[in-house]
Amino acid sequence: MSPSSVSLSSLGLTARGGANPDIAGLAVDSRLVREGFLFAALPGSRVHGAEFIQYAVRMGAAAVLTDAEGAVIAADVMAEAGVAVIVTDAPREVLSRTAALWFGAQPATMVAVTGTNGKTSVSTFVRQIWIEMGLSAVNLGTTGVEGAWTAPLAHTTPEPITLHRALADAAANGITHGAMEASSHGLDQRRLDGVTLKAAGFTNFTQDHLDYHETFEAYFDAKAGLFARVLPEDGTAVVNIDDPKGVEMAAIARARGCAVITVGRDGGDLQLSGQRFDATGQDLRFSWCGKDYQKRLELIGGFQAENVLLACGLVIACGADAADVFDTLPHLTTVRGRMQLAATRDNGAAVFVDYAHTPDAIATALKAMRPHVMGRLVAIVGAGGDRDATKRPLMGAAAAEHADLVIVTDDNPRSEDPAVIRSAVLLGAPDATEVGDRAEAILRGVDAIGPGDALLVAGKGHETGQTVGDDVLPFDDVEQASVAVAALDGRLT
Ligand SMILES: CC(=O)N[C@H]1[C@@H](OP(=O)(O)OP(=O)(O)OC[C@H]2O[C@@H](n3ccc(=O)[nH]c3=O)[C@H](O)[C@@H]2O)O[C@H](CO)[C@@H](O)[C@@H]1O[C@H](C)C(=O)N[C@@H](C)C(=O)N[C@H](CCC(=O)O)C(=O)O
Ligand SMILES: Nc1ncnc2c1ncn2[C@@H]1O[C@H](COP(=O)(O)OP(=O)(O)OP(=O)(O)O)[C@@H](O)[C@H]1O
Ligand SMILES: N[C@H](CCC[C@H](N)C(=O)O)C(=O)O
Ligand SMILES: [Mg+2]
């Protein structure tokens, strides 16, 4: 739990001129500053936080943490107000470490997972394995804080004050184990640099978020920060080496003296050697330290086995006995909105909801369904507004290549014109049917599936809203799928 107030120096901060006021709280947004707070005035994409120092001072800020540019922008205001000023060329990193010290406790065993796809899945499986082993655990990320203790989160990797408040609350509630997602934005903005990790995981690297990072190199460098900087030298990197970028991540971690556990189909310390699929799941064969194992997984999709084995590697890296870890596999359950069976038609055709929102995830999800499906595969896809626009035609193309029938619809158009987004997706899927209204698209998709067929509703997964402009309209793919099935099978009263 955070203290009521501590001196600036006990938070490891040195102010210009040696001022050392008591600090009563931390804020990154001037509107949240209260009497005695430290205000972190960070450079932003739209504006420099230093523009709000005057406001923060009026709210009672006792200290300001900023960079050289911020110090220049607000020099007069700060001199006149007499606040303590800390200037650093790494204000985000310093804020993370300060937040860790301010909130104090975090679960003693923490792991973080990065990669384009699979972060939520792997961190959820890590948490499920720990709980199956009798430990008190949570996962933190896109789906909020879940597990032995729950709380909502607005971001996949929250900014450091929110993150460390959540970790301290978890620790205060007796949580000893935590698995978190490290998004590329979060890593780039040093949001998790104050978290003490035992292990870090890497899933895969494909296209996403180029609107923010601009180049693949910058996107890779952001993710590599988990292994090059955040993971301590006595920590363990657990990497998927089927992805060439995983081999690079392993080399980055090894060069710093970190231990490395490799996971893969083609080789690796933890190697997946066989998979047999059926209607409700799959049987896995794999090896660890020269010993073979065979386990049942009640999960749909070949890639989920990769996620599960990466999760096993992370739990083993934290000190668990491997055989105990593998014994939990038959008890793992679907991650919310990830290859989730949402409804089944009277004719046996199944509707799955999945969070695939990148070209690679759409291809992976559809390919993963094939071995479980005898008939045709129908896909419903759409792309988000105010997000990487270059991925749109590629998402359409991935659906067209791997499904037998494609319906293009809306997925959080946000501030953009939904018709423009759909036409970009349709460039990659010219034969697709365009149905803007997502509920109608789901109804049409459900109507199209006969015996042995399956429908994949991609893009929204666990989400419960459709963001149009600034409004979030209630919308849940799982619920809509059930409604559509009930309506078409005459089960609505
Ligand atoms: C693109 C991005 O990451 N933006 C982050 C960034 O905001 P920004 O650069 O746009 O900030 P700005 O509006 O220019 O303002 C600059 C500074 O002034 C401050 N300010 C602003 C207004 C005011 O009145 N007072 C004030 O103090 C702001 O708090 C900010 O620190 O710095 C802010 C403070 O640190 C973050 O909250 C904000 O995350 C926003 C909320 C966001 O939506 N981020 C998304 C894109 C994100 O991080 N997503 C990933 C997705 C992961 C995935 O899909 O894999 C995630 O981890 O969730
Ligand atoms: N190992 C994997 N390889 C390829 N695709 C995957 C893998 N795991 C999950 N996916 C696909 O990516 C989608 C998102 O999965 P998940 O939510 O676990 O990823 P994430 O990395 O947390 O995404 P986000 O960036 O939104 O936080 C899934 O619904 C599935 O379609
Ligand atoms: N965390 C991802 C989720 C995308 C999900 C999809 N439904 C969309 O809105 O694009 C993002 O914000 O880019
Ligand atoms: Mg996620």
TrEMBL record:
Its cofactor is Mg(2+). InterPro entries: Mur-like_cat_sf, Mur_ligase_C, Mur_ligase_C_dom_sf, Mur_ligase_cen, Mur_ligase_N, MurE/MurF_N, UDP-N-AcMur-Glu-dNH2Pim_ligase. A motif (Meso-diaminopimelate recognition motif) lies at residues 411-414. SUPFAM superfamilies: MurD-like peptide ligases, catalytic domain, MurD-like peptide ligases, peptide-binding domain, MurE/MurF N-terminal domain. Pfam families: Mur_ligase, Mur_ligase_C, Mur_ligase_M. Catalyzes the addition of meso-diaminopimelic acid to the nucleotide precursor UDP-N-acetylmuramoyl-L-alanyl-D-glutamate (UMAG) in the biosynthesis of bacterial cell-wall peptidoglycan. This is UDP-N-acetylmuramoyl-L-alanyl-D-glutamate--2,6-diaminopimelate ligase.
